[in-house]
Batch of 2 targets.
Target 1
Amino acid sequence: MPQCLLCPARGEDVEMELRRADRGEATDLADLWWRSRLASVPAIPPPVHTAGEVRRFFADVVLPTRQVWVATDTDKIIGLMVLADDWIDQLYLEPGRTGEGVGGMLVRRAQGLRPEGLQLWTFQANIRARRFYERHGFVAVETTDGDNEEGAPDVRYVWPHSHQPS
């Protein structure tokens, strides 16, 4: 069901809808992920895989094996969230669309779908993402010195705080 939200960044009404992604959208989702990652450097490390590898990953792994949600604005995908069991595995927005409530809508959907709890990793240096998750009730419970593909320090968050990860 579409929701009308006031877009504080632009001061205009934006029609947004949350829905499940379909397999035919793999390229669009991978390309949004790619644009968002590149736009976020240097707050997060640049991607370690090529755009083609990311497209194949979305087509062959993400869409067939995980629950993928998209936020659309006039039928254009502006946000994506990937759920894998109790993990928010991916959450990316179209560059320039942050601060409009899109990410919050996606996180609230995940919380509604997984009321028993969620967890996620984000880069320690990504202060904006960390504040975003903390505003949505996530609590940092673990850090690493870079135990990920990018070799960058990260932090694991859980929601609610009492959640015992699987």
Target 2
Amino acid sequence: MHSGKATLSIYLAHRQALVNYASGIIGNRTQAEDVVQEAYIRFSAADEESRQGAPIDRPVNYLYRIVRNLALDWARRASRETPVAVDTSDLVTITNDAPSAEEALLYRDELRVVAQALSELPERTRLAFNMVRLEGRSLQEAADRLGVSAVRVHQLVKEAVLHGARKLDERKG
């Protein structure tokens, strides 16, 4: 491929079909949209790397392969996380996993650092993060509400997460 614009145009031209494809594997359209967003990010990064070396031969096929692999990974993970029926007689032996007072203080302090980090971000980035990560909206719902593309919402959420992680690392270091 030749440019990031070409990568984006391929993605946009096939986005709907990719979501349908991933949705067939996962069984959930909202999660399929997340998979396709992640696939675009990986596709874009691979395209960047290919500019220094051998170009990607059939980019559309490559993009579909990324989506398929991510969707299969997602489906496998979801099947492992499916709750198993618990015999109620075992409930007496379950230990209390509630955090200790010390852990609760630590988590509260980390939450304060992350909240402060989020308050430093531009409003649109904060809104994108809140809608996707806290309210559980899909990237497309957040994009429609913010008047930007779903790709841009994913970038904004990623920026917010990375900013929060940097602030936590600064505090620890």
